[in-house]
Fold this sequence. Notes:
About 40% of the residues lie in helices and about 20% in strands.
Amino acid sequence: MLPAGMRVLIVGSGGREHALAWKLAQSPDVSEVFCAPGNPGMPPVATCIPIGAADIVELADFAEKTKIELTLVGPELPLTLGLVLGGTAAASLRLARLISRLDDDAG
């Protein structure tokens, strides 16, 4: 279970990111979902932020300013450019459980 009222940032604009946004938006534990940059189909489930996936400094500033508690990165480029995902081991375990539930729901 995620902490109540969690704010989530999803980096990317593809179908995988859209599916994550759609599922997370359904969770009572998630208060807001942001996608950067997102795509035209995402606004019903997430707020699209006009920050490119490679704009690491802008992504970090946005996350800090909006108090993002969980960041999911779809494309590899932001990671290779140095986007570092912080968090506790407990948060990582909660994420692993959530992903496993998403996989179960999809199968």
